[in-house]
Amino acid sequence: MAKLFPIYLNLKGKQCLIIGGGKVAERKIEDLLDYEPLIKVVSPRFEEKIMAWGREGVLSLQQRLFQEDDLDGSYIVFAATDNNELNYRVARLCRQRGILVNAVDDPPNCDFYVPSIIRRNSLALAISTGGKSPMLARKLRQDLEKIIGNEYGEFVDILGEAREEIKKTIPDIEKRKRIFEAMVYSDILDLIKTGERDKVRERIEQCISSWQD
């Protein structure tokens, strides 16, 4: 199997097509909802939760068999039926059109996989087994969630704010790099963990001043 390049996609406002209305499709929809795509689901039948999302206007439902023109305007497609032949057909049609496709439980016919995600504010850690063992990816996520607490997300946000400030005030790129490195390897994260947030700004200023003329 070819190696896959890990990448994050901005799905906000993009058309995402789900073919299938069972439990697998339901899980894929749950994965997508936080990212604000335009979701269309095509299937002769739907799980009650999917029907409820449709009634709430969260997504668009087409209760019928898949048709090739369902692919029109799609950004990504999930073939999530229990019919392997149909999933393969969808994958083939998507590739002919240059549309990214994920054929559930069929890694050779996937252009991408949905990883197990740990999210802490702006920090996102993605865990993938290349479709070989979603259950292991889930276990690893659960293990890491015990280690990577909310303080890491706060740390990332603090670093992001400081980075914008430093970019505006320090033109020397090499000097910026040294300051960013000093902040990352400082004890700022420990200060957040222990609730000493009043000292965080002080530490940032120390990191900046240590690399200024």
What do these coordinates show?
The structure is a single chain. By secondary structure, the protein is α/β, with parallel strands linked by helices. The chain has three domains: 15-114, NAD(P)-binding Rossmann-like Domain (Rossmann fold, 3-Layer(aba) Sandwich); 115-147, Double Stranded RNA Binding Domain; 150-209. 44% of the residues lie in helices and 15% in strands. The chain has helices spanning 23-33, 48-55, 84-97, 134-145, 150-169, 173-184, 188-193, 200-209, and strands spanning 15-19, 38-42, 60-62, 76-79, 100-103, 116-120, 123-127. The strands form two sheets. The protein has a five-stranded parallel sheet, with helices on both faces. Strands 6-7 form a two-stranded antiparallel sheet. Helix 5 (150-169) packs antiparallel against helix 6 and helix 6 (173-184) packs antiparallel against helix 8. The longest helix has 20 residues, at 150-169. It is elongated and about 65 Å long. The chain starts with 14 loop residues before the first strand and ends with a helix. The relative contact order is 0.09. The mean pLDDT is 91.
